[in-house]
Structures are given as structure tokens and as C-alpha cells.
Amino acid sequence: MPRIIDVVDHTNVMDDELVYREPQGGSGDFRMGSQVIVQESQVAIFVRQGQVLDALGPGSHTLTTGNLPILSGLIGLATSGRTPFTADLYFVNLKDLPQVPWGTNPPIVLETPGKGVGVVLLITHGVIDIGVEDPMRFMKQYAVGKPILRLGDIRDRIQSMLLGELAGLLSSSGAQSIMDANRLLGDLEGAALARLNEQFAQIGMRIKAFEAKPFTAKDVPTDELRNYVDIDTWERIKRLDVANAAAGNPGAGGSLAGAGVGLGVGQSLGAAMNPEQAALQQQQQMMMNQMMMQMMQNNQQGGAQAPQQAAAPAVPQTVEEIRAYLDQLDMKLASGELSESMYDKLSQKWEARLKDLGG
User: Fold this and answer.
1) Which carries the bigger pLDDT value, residue 232 or residue 60?
2) Strands (E), the chain
3) How far apart are CA 355 and CA 352, in angstroms?
4) 3-state class (DSSP) for residue 229
5) What is the Cα–Cα distance from 146 to 25, expressed in whole angstroms?
6) In degrees rounded to 5, what are phi and psi of residue 279?
7) Tens digits of per-residue pLDDT, 96-155?
8) By the 8 A CB rule, do 132 and 45 touch?
9) 217 in the Ramachandran plot: left (φ > 0), alpha (ψ -120 to 50) or beta?
10) Which residue has the higher pLDDT, 218 or 267?
11) How far apart are the first and last CA of the chain?
């Protein structure tokens, strides 16, 4: 014989509790005449065979076919009012759950055409006050069949919806910078909150208050941006990496050449992102190329002269070498590179040496 529930209520509501079933073990046996006591900020909802049926607001209710019209019609109690019936009874907490933390995990992707690499990952965190707005709809979405539903059970869903709506609002607002995004955040704490709630109403919830720290850009390795940009933007990012590497290593391939490569690639990237500066950058690149070519020519000339200098003997040994050396002394005297006294001293020395050799 079923144990009839004559009086039922639920008073020990936990801080993060959304829905509580009474009894916890499953369906209860009720009859018309049983009492259901509903606290302030609560709604009691009867469910049978998975169907969400009748709801009772705050107060003390004696069950009748009048306040359970759908349930009584379903089980045929319209004429035999004291026949026991089985149903699930849920108490839904309507109080706001305050200061619920949220954060951008994952970050929100914001396209920034013409700025930086063309995309930025926005991060922030804050708190919301959230609660159940439509208990019948909320029950159907999340609570039927569960003995208890707490905020932690649907936190990921709330976080996902919140970030999705934020991303949608940012996109539709035309925001193209972190400053633009932060202006929208400020509005979300005011007028735009209503638009955010349009989405949460679909699951029977509401956001009563929204607070957030200003957006900042997440500092990530370049490779982490690959999944957020198109192929053209990705190629520009990689060229920027090459430019930065070259500029940071001026010794590679010659100081001027290394700097030139870095500057050239960097200018190419800048021109792609800022077309209006393309002409100026092209001119700068041409100047750099000319400087590099001049440097290469100088190096080649210097390289060609080095072997000649290396081939000249430090001390003349043969008759031919001494004669050539004396000719050099004549040229240096004529050009003023050598004083007359020094010329006399050296020429006398090597003339004597030449005579010794029979020259």
C-alpha cells in the first residue's frame, strides 16, 4: 500500500540550488487533499511520466482538481478526487544567485582589419547575478528526472552561452579594436543587457546584473593564432616572424644585408596591412637594395685586392723584387707619401743590395 504524502515542503534551500525533488528517492504518492507548502521565491511543479504539468506559487496549497487541472485530467481524477496518484514534485528556486564568476575561456576572437596581425584574442572575467525566470521552461530543459540541480551542473552551459552571445554582440556591433570591445562591455552593464537576456530567456533563465573587467589581448605564441585567421592572414603573420627574426639577428649574412632582409620583409607585411603606405615602403625598399648592392661591390673589390697585397713579399729577395721595390720608392717620393731623407736612406740601402746581387 503506498505511503500517501499528506504535507510536503522544502525549506533548506542551498545557496547554489536551482531545483530540488521531493521526495529525493523518486516519485511520491499524493492525493487530492494533500498539502504542498511553497516558500517565497519558490515554485512547486508536478511532473508525471516526464511531462511538466502544473505549477503552484508561494503559499500553502491543498491539492484539488482546480489547482492541478492538467494532472487531474491526465490521471482521471475529475470525479474521484481522493484516489491516490503518483507524481514527481519539484521545488524550483527563483532567487537570484549573486556574484557568479565567469571568464573568457576560451578567449573571444576579434578581427582587427588593418591593425597588428588582423586578429586579437580577447580575455576578461567578471561576475553575473543569474536566476530562473521561467520555471516551467527551465524544468523541461534541465531538471526533469534529477533529484537535485545545482548551479555547478549547468555552469559550463551558462559560460558557453554567455561567451557566444558576447562574441555575437561584438561582431554585430562592428567592433574592430580592444577599445571598441570595451565600450560594448560598458553598455552590457546597461542597455545591452536586455539583448543578452533574450537568449537566456530561451532556457528559462535571466541575467539580472553583469560585471566585467576591461578586455585585454591574450599574449599567445604565433602558432596559436593559426586556427583563428584565414590563410592569407596566416601567411602575413609568418612573414612578420621572419622579419622580426632577421631584424633581431643583424649579423646574419652581413650586418647591412641582415638588416635589409628584415626591413624588406617587414615593409612588405606593413604594406599589405596598410595599403596607403605601400608606395612609401616600396621606395624605402629600393633605397635599401641600392645600399646593399653598393656594399656587395665594395666587398668584392676589397676581396680582389687582398690576394695582390698578400702576394707582395714583405722583404724583397731577388733582383727583380728589389728593382720593383725601388720603383715603388720613386712613386711614393713623387706622390709625397715618403720624405726625401727616408727615400735617400732606403734607396741607398737597396741600391747597395742590388749591387751585391749583381743587378
Assistant:
1) 60
2) 7-9, 17-22, 28-30, 35-38, 42-48, 51-56, 59-62, 85-93, 97-103, 108-111, 119-123, 125-132, 148-150, 205-212, 216-217
3) 5
4) coil
5) 10
6) -60, -45
7) 999 999 999 889 988 887 777 778 899 999 999 999 999 999 999 999 999 999 999 999
8) no
9) beta
10) 218
11) 143
Amino acid, res. 246:
A
Query: Cα(217)–Cα(102) distance, rounded to whole angstroms?
Result: 17
Neighbours of 216 (CB within 10 A): 16
Q: What pLDDT, in 10s, does the model give residues 327-350?
A: 887 777 766 676 777 777 778 888
Q: Which of 17, 10, 12, 15 is nearest to 154 (CA)?
A: 17
Burial label for 1, CB within 10 Å (0-12, 13-18, 19+), is exposed
* Portion of the chain with pLDDT greater than 70, in percent: 73
Q: Answer with the residue of higher pLDDT: 344 or 244.
A: 344
Q: pTM for this structure? A: 0.62
Gyration radius of the chain's alpha carbons: 44
Q: Are 57 and 38 in contact (CB under 8 A)?
A: yes
The pLDDT > 90 percentage for the chain reads 33
